[in-house]
Specification:
It contains twelve helices and two strands, in the order ααααααββαααααα. It is globular. 37% of the residues are buried.
């Protein structure tokens, strides 16, 4: 009995420590992407190299573990879903996200994805994939939380883009005439659009996985299709494929891509294991930590700051996120009358 308790404690420590570590990796990845673009690399080039590395790393595992789950024939519906997921999740989302990072900061880029749970809820509700009982407390809390997420994101975007005429770099309300940085506002719009595309893509992925229960294979296939689509888009827009830059050699870019693909794959795998052990709600609750880490790293490495108004927007968005996650988690424990059941022996603890 004592050994069993100790094993559970060690597992909890490993899960919590690992989830915090994953957020460090995600924050570091945002800084890396911002650094690569500051050297002049095109977002298309970064997408092609990083996504191709994801395909190369995931394919052997997908073939080994999920080959038996592959469909025996390809239907037009399935091919259409693959193309839409590839274009939305790889080309469009990453292009918007990278342009947003370039115009704002890594801290803003890691904060915006916290909108995703609320937007996914709205899209799933609109498509009738999510049931909401307006007479139930948890349904009302999810709606309120979603609104708080959106208002918080808008507040954060406007306040972070507000600068004083002297461009003071201190964390305090500006005392001079306040103007809005047009580039930062456009960057925030890019990030919001990216999160909207990501949220729609998640709903489409969930629908596709119902018929094709092989997540690694789906990720590998859509990565390859996404690379092809991104290369085609770059050819149309730039009339050439830019696979390097004078300040970054192709060799270094391949090394960055393989490192990012390997570490990213490990993070996704760990999140999947933690989700299976403790449920999706606990995993989702660690997302805002990545934003805090990114703010600290941006301050230390890049000398960036963030205004008090922007911090207030972040707090409002995080509060709304936790409202949505709390209500979603509580709904699982509700009976038909909306009454909460305290225990569920078949559901992992802390989920």
């Amino acid at each position: 009995m004592v050994v069993y308790i100790k094993r559970d404690i060690l597992e909890d420590v490993a899960i919590i420590g690992g989830l915090v570590g994953v957020q460090f990796v995600y924050a570091g990845n945002s800084l890396l992407l911002g650094y690569l673009m500051s050297l002049g690399l095109s977002p298309f080039t970064i997408i092609i190299f990083f996504t191709l590395s994801t395909f190369i790393i995931l394919t052997p595992f997908a073939v080994y573990f999920e080959r038996s789950k592959w469909p025996k024939q390809l239907t037009l519906k399935f091919i259409t879903q693959l193309v839409l997921i590839s274009f939305g999740g790889v080309t469009l989302f990453q292009c918007l996200f990278l342009k947003g990072i370039n115009l704002t900061s890594p801290a803003m880029a890691t904060a915006m994805p916290n909108l995703a749970p609320g937007l996914i809820f709205i899209i799933a509700w609109t498509c009738r994939l999510e049931k909401v009982a307006l007479s139930c407390l948890y349904g009302k809390v999810k709606i309120v939380g979603t609104l708080m997420c959106v208002v918080g994101a808008l507040t954060m975007s406007l306040m972070q883009s507000a600068v004083s005429s002297k461009d003071a770099r201190i964390i305090a309300p500006p005392t001079d005439d306040v103007v809005f940085d047009k580039n930062k506002i456009i960057g925030c719009m890019y990030l919001m659009a990216a999160v909207l595309v990501l949220s729609s893509n998640v709903v489409l992925q969930a629908t596709t996985l119902g018929d094709f229960p092989a997540p690694m294979s789906l990720c590998a296939i859509t990565s390859l299709i996404g690379v092809i689509i991104t290369a085609m888009v770059q050819l149309v827009e730039d009339h050439q494929l830019k696979l390097g830059w004078p300040l970054v050699s192709v060799k270094d870019l391949i090394a960055f891509s393989l490192l990012g693909g390997t570490v990213g794959g490990a993070c996704v795998s760990f999140n999947g294991w933690a989700m299976r052990k403790r449920g999706p709600v606990l995993v989702s609750m660690f997302s805002p930590i990545g934003t805090v880490i990114s703010v600290i790293l941006s301050f230390v490495t890049l000398g960036e700051t963030i205004s008090l108004g922007s911090l207030a927007g972040m707090f409002l968005m995080f509060t709304g996120l936790y409202f949505v996650l709390w209500a979603k988690g509580k709904e699982v424990f509700s009976d038909g009358n909306g009454l909460e059941s305290e225990f569920d022996p078949e559901k992992p603890l802390l989920s």
